[in-house]
Design brief:
The complex is a heterodimer of chains A (about 280) and B (about 375). Chain A has about 280 residues and is mainly α. Chain A contains 12 helices and 4 strands, in the order αααββααααααααββα. The chains are: A mainly alpha (about 280), B alpha+beta (about 375). Chain A: Its main location: membrane.
């Protein structure tokens, strides 16, 4: 019976509200902070009543940070663009390489397939600092240090295993008979991959791409060591807010709000794919 | 097109599934692969379709060796037990897929899909996705997809397994005509002996990694190769009684409850050794006490099964016997009764191996099967 009592509804509502409050409060607080000056932020006790100011945003967008010690040049918008470009390009490369590989791992049982797949996954276990030093030296020798290409390559350590393992699971969930049926109907192996496997794993590929994008976006260490100022993403660029005259909380908050926006928008847009992806069981028809 | 399988061996890792299977199917023939689950029927179909490769042996279609020939190049249509419809395409696109593969014209595809859909009575649901279709409609769509390309070989993997009883009955009536119209060579897999008997020109009974018997439905029913096959065909199940053939005045006979029952005059097996006597429930009739060959039984239970009524009776030494008679004919209600055995319908099996040792193919037996 699908009947829920009033008490149950109230309890459920309360529980959901609590969870939302718990998770959303920091974001909400940062959102408020981004419209305040450092003085109002550091008031004791804090208050949500204040005169909103857009100065933090104008400082970020114009690239001029006014501090007590004078005007600082910051390249936040450039950093934001770098983040966007690096993450999108890494995910694109990761999908182009990872999706066919995932299909191979899911459908073809070749010698050592499990070992190779696991080795790729193990890249996720290794502490990034462990590989950074040799990577930096090699990259400097072959001229990849401080290039977008080099960064996107290193970002594959993050996105490729993720995409490979998530998408592989979705490919494995497609009944083999559905693919056989398409081939017996007279279609080639390649056509079956494009017309059956790809569309049916589509929600999973979207979900994996989204997750990989978020992971790439949030990366800090690789970019910190391997990129100079003009190639840095926001995660590294935000260090600029720690100035000689103190931490610029208002700008940090505004920077966070701006840097959350792209992933937030992407997540909102891709949410239906994620939900669809989670209910992929419906494929078994 | 004709199809020849020669000495097919297939195993999955350590599991031997098919061990030396050979099969010859003539052009236009409908061959039913019948057997319990796990007997390798589906594996055999997949080998023919080319989605898996045999470890040993060869598959020939119209004489051409299929080794290394991709599934899409074999000219085969296949319907899967679980339908295997493309979930992201509607019924029309599903049925059209073999035609699209051949790059036929748009109008040609449309006409053919609608013809097939009308034949299978699904023309009103062509715009539905598989998940919006009922099981029966899914099954027809899957069948339509297999038929649409007019394949020369049609593989049907238990297509009626997942549909309800009413539809299964309807389809069992429709399918033979449909298959004959296709003029295709058909391999039909089923676990239902009635389906096998209704559809097959020949039936190949699969058990124990291979084909245990192959023959016309009548052959299999009347002359099952062993007790296992005898039990698989027929409902109610065949009576299997332990007897010892001996020489009597009228030829070879066996003793049941002390009464001599003559068996097939063509019997050439051993005398005096214990055998298994197989007798179909419809080969046993109630009789008056004085009838020659009649022996007494105690009636224990009776079940009406639509057109026939099945009686469970016990002989004097407590051996149970099933007796079948057309419903509506009279029989003793309860207690003591006498029965006679139709000696032409008797099948003898070797006790140790279970293999058949005598041919009972007489007119009397054929009357019993019908």
């Amino acid at each position: 019976m699908e009947h829920t009592s009033t008490l149950e509804k109230v309890l459920r509502g309360t529980a959901i509200t609590l969870v939302i409050l718990f998770f959303m409060f920091p974001i909400f607080w940062i959102f408020l902070m981004s419209f305040q000056t450092n003085e109002t932020i550091l008031r004791v006790p804090p208050s949500i009543v204040f005169d909103p100011t857009l100065s933090n945003y104008t400082a970020l967008i114009t690239g001029k940070l006014d501090t007590a010690a004078g005007t600082l040049e910051i390249s936040f918008m450039k950093n934001l663009w770098n983040s966007l470009f690096l993450s999108a390009a890494s995910v694109a490369v990761g999908l182009v390489l990872g999706v066919p590989a995932a299909y191979a791992f899911a459908r073809l049982k070749f010698r050592g397939s499990e070992d190779i797949a696991f080795t790729l996954l193990s890249f996720r276990f290794a502490p990034p600092l462990l590989v950074l030093l040799p990577l930096t030296i090699y990259f400097q020798q072959i001229g990849l240090a401080d290039t977008y290409l080099g960064l996107i390559w290193v970002y594959q350590l993050i996105v490729l295993p993720l995409i490979l393992w998530i998408v592989r699971g979705y490919f494995e969930d497609i009944p083999a008979d559905v693919e056989y049926a398409y081939r017996i109907a007279g279609h080639s192996w390649g056509a079956t991959f494009r017309k059956i496997a790809l569309p049916l794993a589509g929600p999973g590929i979207a979900a994996a791409g989204l997750l990989a994008f978020i992971f790439a976006w949030n990366n800090f260490v690789f970019a910190l060591v391997l990129a100079s100022a003009d190639k840095q993403p926001v995660t590294v660029g935000a260090l600029a807010f720690v100035t000689a005259s103190g931490i610029q909380y208002g700008q940090v908050a505004a920077g966070i709000v701006l840097s959350i926006l792209p992933t937030f928008a992407l997540a909102l847009y891709a949410q239906r794919y994620l939900v669809e992806g989670l209910s992929l069981g419906a494929v078994k028809g | 097109m004709s199809l020849q399988l020669t000495d097919i061996v297939k195993s999955f890792k350590e599991d031997l599934v098919l061990d030396g299977v050979s099969l010859d199917v003539a052009t236009g023939e409908t061959l039913v692969l019948f057997g319990p689950s796990g007997a390798g029927k589906t594996v055999l179909l997949r080998l023919i379709a080319g989605v898996i490769e045999p470890d040993e042996g060869s598959i020939r279609i119209n004489g051409a060796d299929m080794d290394g020939v991709e599934p899409e190049d074999r000219g085969i249509g296949m319907a899967f037990q679980n339908f295997a419809l493309f979930p992201h395409m509607d019924a029309r696109e599903n049925i059209a897929s073999p035609l699209i593969a051949r790059r036929e014209s748009k109008t040609g595809i449309k006409r053919r899909v609608e013809d097939v859909a009308r034949l299978l009575k699904i023309d009103h649901v062509l715009h539905h996705k598989p998940k919006e279709l009922s099981n029966g409609q899914k099954q027809r769509t899957a069948l339509g997809r297999a038929l649409a390309g007019e394949p020369s070989i049609l593989l049907l993997d238990d297509p009626l397994r997942n549909v309800d009883a009413k539809l299964r009955f309807e389809m069992r009536l429709e399918l033979p005509r449909l298959l004959k119209d296709q003029q295709a060579t058909v391999i039909y897999v089923t676990q239902d002996y009635k389906e096998a008997m209704a559809l097959g020109d020949r039936i190949a009974v699969m058990s124990g990694h291979g084909i245990a018997q192959i023959g016309t439905p009548e052959d299999i029913y009347l002359s099952p190769a062993n007790t296992e096959i005898a039990r698989l065909f027929g409902d109610p199940v065949i009576n299997l009684l332990e007897v010892t053939p001996e020489r009597g005045e009228a030829g070879v006979q066996v003793k049941l409850s002390g009464t001599a029952v003559p068996i097939n005059p063509g019997y050439t097996g051993s005398i005096g050794h214990s055998c298994i006597l197989g007798i179909r429930p419809e080969g046993i009739h109630f009789a008056d006490a004085g009838t020659p060959g009649a022996f007494p039984v105690t009636i224990e239970a009776e079940t009406p099964l639509n057109e026939k009524t099945v009686t469970l009776a016990a002989t004097e030494n407590k051996r149970e016997i099933l007796i079948s008679r057309p419903s509506g004919t009279s029989a003793p209600d309860s207690g003591q009764a006498h029965i006679v055995i139709d000696s032409g319908a008797v099948i003898l099996f070797d006790r140790a191996t279970g293999n058949r040792i005598a041919l009972p193919a007489t007119d009397a037996a054929k009357g019993g099967a019908a």
